[in-house]
Amino acid sequence: MSDTDILSNQQLHDYLEELPHWREIPGAIAAVFQTRTSAAAIELFSDIAGAAEMDNHHPDVDWRYNRLFVSTASHDAGGAITARDIALASKISERAEALGAKPRVDLIGAVEIGIDTDDPAAIAAQWAAGLGYKVQEDGSLADPDHRKPAIWFQQTATPNENRLHLDIWNPHSESAKVLDALKEQGVAIDEQYAPGFYVATDRQGNRFCICTEEDR
Known about the structure:
Largest sheet: 6 strands, mixed
Number of helices: 5
Strand content: 25-35%
Radius of gyration: 18 Å
Organism: Glutamicibacter arilaitensis
Family: Belongs to the pterin-4-alpha-carbinolamine dehydratase family.
Oligomer: single chain
GO biological process, one term: tetrahydrobiopterin biosynthetic process
EC number: 4.2.1.96
Protein name: Putative pterin-4-alpha-carbinolamine dehydratase
CATH class of the largest domain: Alpha Beta
């Protein structure tokens, strides 16, 4: 397999079995590392940058005091996950471990905005123009700088009255905590699509989905 070949779902699942710090999120694989100090986080950031330059493959890194939120995808493969991402993730984990950084799988997550529509093509360009996003091959919309939530269109002949909903991504290993917290707040949970996603409905009928990487 070439380093630039797009991984199948099964291949990605198998690779991530060997990378316990990493999880799949929409359009990337991601990890969070927590260091003892802000200075140590900067040192890890520098190490990640060095690995990225060596591989000529650059992840997205968000530095928040003593935490680094890291994600990687192959932009030259249309934003898909390739073997290059797996190799880079492995190097990043090695550097994090060497510096004593703690992996925080519980902090991995992402948010997407879903829009119900009977004709995605009729509105995609309008939303892209308003947000400054790019239309992806699958018809979804993405922020070119990967800072803002992605938009995807749920095609349906009977759009819900509330056409917008959030897809809140959590690692499957953490989803039970989120679901328990929602149930304590009286949120109704539809589990018919579990474990891929759970449809949550609040007291006023607003819906959102708790999504995981399982069964993708």
